[in-house]
Amino acid sequence: MNKLFRACAAVLLCTTFSCTPIMKMAYGIKNPKIETDQSLLKKSKKFGFRTDNLATVNEADYLLVLQKNGIPDANIFDKEGRYIEYRATEESCNAGLFSYIPKLGTDTAHKYTNVTTLQAETQRLRDLKGNAFTSLPEADYYVFIYWAAFTGKLNKDHVKAWEELAASNKKTKIAVIKVNLDIQDYWTPAFKNEIYSSMNKK
């Protein structure tokens, strides 16, 4: 891994996660572990998540996805693959999802932006073993929920609530894909160890 990549990785990780013990306590961030397909399945069951819609991110796009998305956070797309902006403003937090997901319907008006597309985000995904992600079902809307095992309990409660809200919306068909942002065991040793070391600094 070259020096430029290491520098970029450090900047992105420090931007996304504070390295101070105080901030780790405030946000419930635990020292990240390297996760396998089995450990993620076990933890998903523990958190009360469905386990048939889990995905991870390939190492080439991991830092980009980590920088773009909070934990937990979500992206919403329509069946045409267009990105839907559910936040009222750029400064708005993801709390708007609690009211936006129930309002989704085939006749709902949305604010579309070119931030990304369903195709672009799906290409970054892998299954829990690192294989190409091919489990995107037909739906009217797609909600990609980003989460990690190393964040606090409140974050897991949000993920579970968003998934349940999507399932209880009977006005339209919503497919939820839960994108895990932990360190994946299937990544190459050099990248995996670099991220692990950066995230576990005191």
Automatic annotation (TrEMBL):
Q: Which PROSITE patterns match?
A: PROKAR_LIPOPROTEIN
This chain belongs to which protein, by name? Lipoprotein
**Species lineage, top-down?**
Bacteria, Pseudomonadati, Bacteroidota, Cytophagia, Cytophagales
